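Lecture 7 notes: from sequence to structure.

We start with a single chain of 245 residues. Read the sequence below before looking at the structure.
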Amino acid sequence: MIKQKILRYTFILAISLSDLCVVAQDANTGEEIKLPKHESNLIADNAPVFGGIAVSADLVGFAMKAVNARFANMEVAGRLNFCEKYFPIVELGIGDCKKTGGDNNNTFSCTAPYYRVGVDYNMNKKMTGNRFFIGLRYAFTSYSYSFDNPDYADPVWKIHSPLTLHDMNGKNQWIEVVLGMETKLWSIVRLGWNLRFRNRIKQKVSEYGEPFYVPGFGKNGGSTFGGTVNLTFDIGKTAKKNIGK
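Now the structure, written as tokens:
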């Protein structure tokens, strides 16, 4: 047990020391020298004002649609990069839901677009290829939804008959708080994930009842959690490492 602890602490110490320095070469002698790691990376403050454009797609939403999940938010996004710190972003998607269940096989269905605008802030100060985001979104959607009950029982007369409510209209607005990470895989390709807390700020629905699902928001309610896994492509100019300048 003691040996295992010693080995574990030794491993942690070795990793910590390797994180503090990197190997470089002396320009005159050609000998290897060690530099503090913070000197080997371009500080984000020195990044160009405009760092490029990126487009992305959420892999989770398309996967949920492929496996016929109860609902799926399929979305793409475009964003700008300013100073490697501020990333204004626009997200566009289509929400799709078809849920059947209950004692009488009730069916709820809804398919409609949704929109989000906001900004992410990169809290990683070094140009390591990794980004740690915190962000905010304003989102909205306008949609129609349907409800079918093949064996509806009238609560007064107790008569059973089909109930069909189609083209009921709704509008929702909400705010999202975003926390996520992103890393560079290869060249212009990046992969990241984020978690989102969604809080409804306004809703307008049919007098016949609220929808089970809201496009882009998820299961209807005052608040909910969600997330995405994004495959991103940097298609504009990007900041480059500039060691020693």
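Helices lie at 2-20, 59-66. Keep this in mind for problem set 3.
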